[in-house]
Please model this.
Amino acid sequence: MTCPVCGRELSRDEIAVYRRLVFREADDCLCKTCFAARLRVPEEEIDRKIAHFKSIGCTLFTK
Ligand SMILES: [Zn+2]
Model:
């Protein structure tokens, strides 16, 4: 899957965090750079959310 905004290949974590925060069945997921820009937060905030969801064992990140 690639980011529809910048065309970059998405990592599993980027897909998972987008689905976790926006829509669980999302087919068009943004990369963390474009997602952070859309949310108007620093990109590190997305990294923090990924780490947080992993730490609580969110199943989107473990499969
Ligand atoms: Zn992007």
